[in-house]
Each structure stands twice: as structure tokens, then as C-alpha cells.
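Reopening closed ticket. The problem is back. First fold of the pair:
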Amino acid sequence: MLELLLVPFRRCHYHIMTTLSQTKELFRRADAVCFDVDSTVIKEEGIDELAKFCGVGDAVTEMTRKAMGGSMTFKTALTERLSIIRCSREQVNKLITDHPPQLTPGIRELVDRLHQRNIKVFLISGGFRCIVEHVATQLNIPLHHIYANRLKFYFNGEYAGFDESQPTAESGGKGKVISMLKEQYGFKTVVMIGDGATDLEACPPASAFIGFGGNVVRQQVKERSSWYVTSFGELLKELEKI
């Protein structure tokens, strides 16, 4: 049996602290691996790119930093950022065409290797489904393995808000998705990989968390991760040990 130590994380959250060797073992024998998308699977933060594209980059970048640092609820930050951006459907489509999301080096190989080993791969993102679908297609991840926020538009294409009923629109939403996956598929071991506070707080219900700092290092996450990597090559190397 793995001995797990519960340590208080923020208000009312408990984060499972596994040792480095336990985390590596859980990763090697995972039934499913869930990746955050922005600043993890892709190099950028999708919402910041959208804001830049719509000419309101600086205001939104500052709010993203606060949200990722855990100093405001995720839903508040998302609502406020989107009310500044107010992007149209046309602008979103043009962003994906003109500035497609840049995959983080090594992610394609890692996802391929996980698929070869019959480990299910999911993308769980506080970003937008239309952008995440583009990423999933490049990585051969089925579209029904995506959990992300949905933008809403009026019939004329103008911004109409976002779907607040999605679990990923809430703080703690990634954990809700993982609980749902465990129930739906019967997974015993699920590993969450990501760069931000919302990824860390998904463990539990995730069996283990791996912090990723290949694009941006968030100090709070680094300090609380028993395994913190800065390249996907480190994870590939671990899988080769079997």
C-alpha cells in the first residue's frame, strides 16, 4: 500500500503528497493521464493569445497571472477576462487559423507512447473547447476525451458569454472531471499533469500530480509538487523503465 500524506492546500482543499518514487510508480502504472492544456500541452495561455489578438492583451495577462497564482476564484477571473475580450466567433476562428496553438516540445511523443501502452489520455482545460479541439486533433486524442469551457455566441457571431454549467468553469472543476472519469471508466490510477494551481488542486481525486514547468514556472506549484519536471522527455524516460 502506498502511504499518502494529506497536507492542507489553500482553504479547505487537501492535496495528496506522495513521495517522488511513489509518484513515478503511479505514473508508470496509470490507467489514465490527464493533461492541462495552456502552458502545459501548448506553449501559450490560450485566453492571453485571444486577448492579444483582440487588442486587450495587457489587461487580461495580469488577470491570468492572478488566477493562476490562486488569488481569485477561477470563475471570477474567467468571467472578468472574457468581459474585457468580448471576442466574436469570427475572431476566434481567425486566431486558430492565423496563430494556431504551438505544441510544447516532446508532448506528441509522450502522448503517442502513452497510447501505445494503452493508457487513456484526456485534456482537461480551463481554456476554450474550440482551441483545445484543434490541439487534440494534432495529438490523436479523441474529442470526447476533452473537458473544457465553451464560448457562447449570438446568431450574428457576437460574444454571448460562456457555458457556466461546465465543471471546468469552476475552481475545483478539474477534480470534478477526474472523479467523473473514475466513475465512468472505472479507472483506479489517474495522474494529473499541469503547470497551475487548478491542476494541483485536482489531486485528490487524482492519484498523483506531476508539476510541469517547461513553459512557465509557478513557484507555489513547484514547492508543492513531489515530482516537478521541466520537459516531457523526463516523463518519456520514466516510461522506458518498464
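Second fold of the pair, where the issue appears:
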Amino acid sequence: MVRAMVQQAVQGSSAAYAKEMERLSAKESLLLAFKDAGGFEALVTGKTTDMQCIDVNESIVSLERLNPTPRPTTSPYLDGRWNFEWFGSGSPGLFAARFVFERFPPALASLSKLGVVIKDGYVNAEANVKFFNSIESKVILSTKLSVEGPLRMKEEYIEGILKSPKINEETIPAQLRGTFGQAASTLQQLPDPIRDAMETGFKVPLGGTFYRLFMISYLDDEILITRDTTGVPEVLTRLDPAPSPVIEPVTDYES
């Protein structure tokens, strides 16, 4: 009996080790698929081929079936700074990114960053856009998350913020520096309420008018994968150190 118990424990340990190695291999394959597809810029500019897209999606599915977090919506791993690596064809993130690239030549505008910060049930999605390689602007979308199940969440949009552009004077062409100086002087002469509003950015209240449902199909300390109601995947990678894992409490989900 003792021999059987020891053998069963060894076999269980070996199976767990093999599954973990399979998961780590699947993660590496997904990251390599992103790289082979040309990365973020190739994705948002529509330069990824059908073969590259199917390779990435196959790697996503392979990793999802090895999800190590059974209740990701209440996991401490969800909080943190995340960077978008992949959008599906119907993703709102991809639509917003391509809106910039399709209307402005690369020499005029570029999307340098698209990421999110998740903290205590709230999300700030940030998009950094640079115009003429000199003017940087940031668009922030604030949302609230509600847990509706071990995998499912509801995201309500709270407000949008258009930050005032920041200008790098060193990169401004010499022939335009005089005009820039005059504009800066004019801004300083504006009334304080207007100047303060321009410095802090313009806010657009959304008041929970818009929302979306999505599910978390994979979550660990480095990668987050979500799918919307149409099944379109989004893949994000963590930018900050992951929190220490804790025992997740049993949660009563909203219906």
C-alpha cells in the first residue's frame, strides 16, 4: 500500500511537471509568433500576412487550453500595467490604432504605445500618438470592471480624456520655431481656467452609457488573454513585476 501511494505521488508530480513544461513552451511559441508576424507596428498597419495571423491564433489557442488560473477575474495577477501585443480583426483596440495609421502617413503620425493599467476594478487604457515626430499627445479611456463569473467580466466606460499635446522643441524645424514661440506666448496669456483645462486635458464624460462583456481565457504572471462576445482575442504582456500569488476567496458573482 505504501509503495502504491509513493508511486502515485511520483506519477502525479511528473504529470504536473510535464504540463508546466508544456505551458512554458506554449508561451514561448506565442511570443515567437508575435515576433515573426512583425510585432505591434506590423499588426496595426495591416502588414501581417494571413499565414502569420493563423500562426499567432493557433499559438493563442494552444496556450489558452493550459490556463493555470481557474478564476482569473478575481486573481491578484489581473492588476498591473499591461501592454497590447495582439488584436483580433474586430478588436476596438485595433480599430483605434488603424484609424491613426490609415489617415496619417507614417512620417506625420505614429502610435508609439497602447497599454492599460488595471487597479482595484478600474482600468485606464492609454494610447500615445506622436505627430510630425515633435508633438506627443495621449488619449486615456477610463473604465470600471465588474466580475460576473470566474471567467466573465463587464466593462463600463466612464470617461475619455484627451491630454494636451507636449512639444519637443529640439525636434521642431528651425523655420517653425518662431511660430511655435508666438503660439506658446499666446497660450500663457489665456485666462487661468482655460489654460488649466488645456494643461490637464479635455474630458468627455461617458457615464456608463457604453459597456462591453468579455472573458479572460488565460492569465498568469506575464500574459493576459481576453475574448469579446464575438470570440476575438486580445493578448497583453505585463510591464511591471507580478504580485505574489494568494489564495483566492470564494466570490458571489453578479448575475
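Update: turned out to be a display glitch only; the data is intact. The first strand starts at residue 80 and ends at 87. Strands lie at 80-87, 109-119, 122-131, 135-147, 152-162, 166-167, 202-205, 211-219, 223-228, 233-238. Please close again.
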